[in-house]
Design goal:
Alpha/beta knot; alpha/beta; 60s Ribosomal Protein L30, Chain: A; 5-stranded mixed β-sheet; elongated
Length: about 280
């Protein structure tokens, strides 16, 4: 049992005050007030430790089956005086939202050194390779885009403030640890952000099909281009289309359905990656 190996007492009460506080982090309002988020699973625990996230708590299930590397890192965390809490299955299940949890949850502070919440601030994006996401609502889409942006060498992702919560457990899970590796701006003033991008000599390309849209297979995308991916149901907004320098679309077979937002974003990422 992990509690014996780690020399920890087991919390068996679901009404324990610390457990109640941690379980509330599944709610966006409480996450924002506490500036804490949950990372559920072995890989996210390892990534949080490896990328020096500020860890508030680590919750382990007493009968969890963890690999040797994970146990080694847990012992290192204990040596650093980090708070490791051992719980039984009932208490663990009060916190986790996973269908098949792995028995370890890391509670981290918001990643303020990488993630910014902006309004009208003047920002220079000149030397950054980035993508703009407008009103993305599906946590799986957002998490996958963040994950793939790291794979294709992006420096930053810009999100409109009406996108799904960046620290939603489902978003965090879908990033597979990439959340710790990339800079992200959440912007409430889209017009000011577009102005910042244009001052930084970026070309804004909205992903949209129109009579004069550029065709992706004939248009070379450079690292200086910022592609805008719109909402899953409605696409890029009219306001964003107006502010963009051009529109671009991915050629497909006639009468086919539009691509999933994360799939479309990844195709654009690949095209830019090829042209580095």
């Amino acid at each position: 049992m992990l509690n014996e190996e780690l020399k920890l007492d087991i919390i068996t009460s679901k009404t324990n005050s610390t457990i109640i506080k941690i379980s509330k982090l599944n709610d966006k309002k409480y996450r924002n007030s506490e500036k804490l988020f949950l990372c559920d699973g072995i890989k996210l625990f390892k990534e949080a430790v490896s990328f020096y996230a500020k860890i508030k708590y680590i919750i382990v299930k007493n009968d969890a089956i963890l690999d040797d590397e994970c146990i080694k890192k847990l012992k290192e965390c204990l040596n650093k005086q980090l708070k490791v809490i051992c719980v039984n299955s009932d208490v663990f299940n009060k916190i986790t939202t996973e269908q098949a949890p792995q028995g370890i949850i890391t509670v981290c502070e918001f990643l303020d050194t990488k993630h910014r919440y902006l309004n009208e601030e003047r920002i220079d994006y000149s030397n950054e390779h980035m993508m703009f996401l407008e009103s993305i609502r599906d946590p799986g889409n957002l998490g996958t885009i963040i994950r793939n942006s790291v794979a294709f060498g992006y420096d930053r992702i810009i999100l409109t403030s009406d996108c799904v919560d960046l620290y939603s457990p489902k978003v965090i899970r879908a990033t597979m640890g990439a959340i710790f590796k990339i800079k992200i701006d959440v912007v409430s003033n889209v017009e000011a952000t577009i102005l910042n991008l244009k001052r930084s000599k970026k070309r804004i390309l909205a992903s949209s099909l129109g009579n004069k849209s550029l065709v992706l297979d004939s248009e070379k995308l450079s690292g200086n281009d910022v592609v805008v991916i719109g909402n899953e149901g409605h696409g890029v907004s009219n306001g964003m289309l107006y502010m963009s320098d051009d529109t671009v679309f991915i050629p497909m077979e006639p009468n086919s359905e539009s691509l999933n937002a994360s799939v479309a974003a990844t195709i654009f990422m690949w095209e830019q990656y090829k042209n580095k």
